[in-house]
Amino acid sequence: MTSINLADRTVDLGEWARSVPDAAEQFAVAVRDWLEKNLVGDFVHVKGRGGPGSEHEFFDDRLAWDRHLSAAGWTCLGWPTRYGGRGATFEQRIIFHQEYARANAPARVNHLGEELLGPTLIEFGTEEQKRRFLPGIVDVTELWAQGYSEPGAGSDLAAVSTSAQLDDSGKHWAINGQKVWTSLAHVAQWCFVIARTESGSQRHQGLSFLLVPLDQPGITVRPIQQFTGTSEFNEVFFDDAVTDADLIVGAPGDGWKVAMGLLQFERGVSTLGQQVGFEREWQELAELARRNGAADNPEIASRLTRAWIGLTVMRANAQRTLAGDIVSGTGAASVSKLLWANWHRDLGELAMAIVGAPSLLGPTHTVEGAENDITNPNHVELDEWQRLFLFTRADTIYGGSNEVQRNIIAERVLGLPREARS
């Protein structure tokens, strides 16, 4: 049957079906409409603010925005409803992140809790831990930092030396050591920490995943000044810091498994929203090249074209990976990280070539209100392209450096001999 008679009117079912938005489009329209109606008034000035290298921008206002999202049910979309989430489908989550990026909405302050720790607790945590911590992530009343890297264990997570031992009462872990590159630890209330809980253990063995309150006498948070003049990440020192014995995710010694599970969540659907942001950067840079004449240079034009091709390849790879078209064991997460990190670094270098000589000029103005901003000790602001160039140097390091990603592909996927380690 291709048509039906309704009250003396014949309706073509094919035409009717095409006129009714499918569920995905309806969801996209709902997200788009809500963002359009809410990114107004007190939130207009935070549009596009707080991205990588600019996490210091309007932090309190972006925190208020995150809580506004929560009140409307737009946080923790993919979490089960019994844990405060929306129970959104995989497709809906992709749509949300893409529409959010297209709206140029501000960078979220709750990413580590919502996208990393929350799903990890749902997968590996106890029911008591879920009841204690998930509500504070959903309503954005508790923020989290990630305690992975150390001065002697940057991208090599298995080399951590921070230790944790149960005290004589058996009620608390006593933690000693140092973490570094700890993003936003200066504003977080909690940190998830990888620590060595079995004395004498090595590499992946004897590690545990602990939930540690940051506001205590045994913890010192020291901001690290970056090339950009700001200090979004920190050193964190643990000197007999404590956390309750039951605030361990998984069993003692299972920390490597839990940590690796968390890293898989890190490379989830939000990466597609990230790529929408990359596309916007490319478009703005291409427009700048047209305005200042740089696009007339054949080399610049060629680099812009290659960047667009790279963006297209990166998007296709992410869609295949997230859709499950790439089987496990292929190093897909490492391939994805190499693709976007190197592409973004190259875009920063291209930006300097397009801007030309002015890119070498230092900051010319101060940031309004920055005199009280601990994350910006120099109180200066680079322009967007200088900041892009400087910060994208870090893209190839954090989240697993290029060298580590290539080793994973070589050793675990291709079966090549392991790299010699001293």
TrEMBL record:
Residues 145-240 form the Acyl-CoA oxidase/dehydrogenase middle domain. The keyword Membrane does not apply. One of its GO terms (cellular component) is plasma membrane. Keywords: FAD, Flavoprotein, Oxidoreductase. InterPro entries: Acyl-CoA_Oxase/DH_mid-dom, Acyl-CoA_Oxase/DH_mid-dom_sf, AcylCo_DH-like_C, AcylCo_DH/oxidase_C, AcylCoA_DH/ox_N, AcylCoA_DH/ox_N_sf, AcylCoA_DH/oxidase_NM_dom_sf, Mycobact_Acyl-CoA_DH. Residues 253-414 form the Acyl-CoA dehydrogenase/oxidase C-terminal domain. This is Putative acyl-CoA dehydrogenase.
